[in-house]
């Protein structure tokens, strides 16, 4: 959820679905907060506004109430997900998968982020201090094996180094010390 919208507890939601019309009144959803807490919420009302969908949830009556939802991810109960055609996957199913580049294990997908371009970013925690952000782009994907929880990719040379902090000597050289 992107921001509060209005004065009665509404929130603006950026949709990442090919079926935006499946949202409806009395629909039960989960709100997954950034700290990992999850709470069930029920859609009371909804309407489109600009590039967003505005949702009003039962029991969320004020701007302050709505602020507790900002940044949370809306999730459908898995029993209510639409059946996907072969070759399609829910990005949330990638969390917990191991990313492998060639024969090298990079790490585990801990999050999926949107908004940095056309492709979603896989946030991958490996041996590096900072997590890697790897575009989940068809051009890089070799094989997706959800049964084995594995994402096999062929990443361009240097992509992982984009996330690596510069060495101390390199930092000093840049700052002129």
Please give a structural write-up.
There is one protein chain. This protein is mostly beta strands. Helix content is 7%, strand content 36%. The radius of gyration is 19 Å and the shape is elongated. A six-stranded antiparallel β-sheet has the order 1-2-5-4-3-6. Strands 10-9-8-7-12-11 form a six-stranded mixed β-sheet, with no helix packed on it. The longest helix is centred in the last third of the chain and has 8 residues. The mean pLDDT is 84. It has two domains: 76 residues, RimM (Elongation Factor Tu (Ef-tu), domain 3, Beta Barrel), CATH 2.40.30.60; 68 residues, SH3 type barrels (Roll). It is built from two helices and twelve strands, in the order βββββαβββββββα.
* Low-confidence blocks of residues: none
Number of domains: 2
CATH topology of the largest domain: Elongation Factor Tu (Ef-tu), domain 3
Give the number of helices. 2
Gyration radius over CA: 19 Å
Indicate the structural class: mainly beta
N-C termini distance: 43 Å
Shape: elongated
CATH homologous superfamily classification of the largest domain: RimM
Largest sheet: 6 strands, antiparallel
Mean pLDDT: 84
CATH structural class of the largest domain: Mainly Beta
Gist of the model:
With 177 residues, the protein is mostly beta strands.
List the helices and strands and how they pair.
Elements: E1 3-4, E2 10-13, E3 28-32, E4 38-49, E5 52-57, H1 63-67, E6 73-75, E7 98-101, E8 104-113, E9 121-125, E10 132-135, E11 141-145, E12 150-153, H2 168-175
Parallel strand pairs: 7-12
Antiparallel strand pairs: 1-2, 2-5, 3-4, 3-6, 4-5, 7-8, 8-9, 9-10, 11-12
């Amino acid at each position: 959820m992107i921001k509060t919208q209005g004065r009665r507890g509404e929130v603006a939601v950026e949709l990442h679905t090919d079926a935006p019309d499946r949202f409806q009144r009395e629909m039960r959803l989960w709100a997954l907060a950034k700290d990992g807490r999850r709470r069930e919420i029920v859609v009371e009302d909804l309407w489109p506004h600009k590039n967003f969908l505005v949702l009003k949830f039962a029991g969320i009556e004020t701007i302050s109430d709505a602020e507790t939802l900002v940044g949370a991810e809306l999730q459908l109960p898995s029993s209510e997900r639409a059946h996907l055609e072969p070759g399609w996957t829910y990005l949330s199913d990638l969390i917990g998968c191991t990313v492998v580049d060639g024969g090298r294990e990079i790490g585990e997908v801990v999050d999926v982020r949107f908004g940095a371009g056309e492709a979603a970013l896989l946030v991958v925690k490996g041996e590096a201090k900072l997590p890697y952000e790897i575009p989940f782009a068809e051009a890089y994907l070799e094989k997706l094996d959800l049964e084995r929880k594995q994402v096999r990719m062929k990443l361009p040379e240097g992509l992982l180094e984009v996330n690596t902090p510069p060495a101390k000597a390199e930092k000093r050289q840049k700052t002129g010390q």
